[in-house]
Every structure is written in C-alpha cells, then in structure tokens.
Amino acid sequence: MRPVTNDQAELRKRWVKHNKADKAITHAWFAAGMPHGQLPSLPFPPEFHGLCCGAKTRAGTPCKRRDLYDSGRCRLHGGLSTGPKRKRTP
Description:
The protein has 90 residues and is mainly α. It has helices spanning 6-31, 75-78. The protein has one domain (6-78).
C-alpha cells in the first residue's frame, strides 16, 4: 500500500470535483427528461485508482480503505450521520 501524502490529499480534492461535475451532468440529464437507463457520466480518470481514505485512525495511522464516498472519505470516516447520541426525555 502507498503511504498517504499531500499528493493523495490533492487527489481527494480532485475526486470531490470530479464527483460534483458528474452529478451535475446527471441532474441536467434528468431535468431534460431523458431516460434513466442511459445515464451519461464522465470517464473515470486512471489516477483515482488506488486512492485511499487517508483519515487518521484511532491508532494514529492513515486509513487504507479504498471504498470512497463523494466526499473522498470512506464510510467510517465521512459517511452518513449515525443519528442522535442521547436519549430524548419525555
């Protein structure tokens, strides 16, 4: 595995921009009333292959997961909210 460097951080920024542009194309496609089965998308740049999350884990090492959300982080370090943490009192 490659160590996380500033190059990886820059790639994650480009990943976010790439996903935003791809979503804009998809929204324009649906706004034009085009069929759902033939969505256009941007080609996947080869430099994104092997891009890892890179968030700092509890052990202090960079996360090596490669299944990234649009945010450029994995489901453990940038996913959806887990909801409220405390109980509601009546």
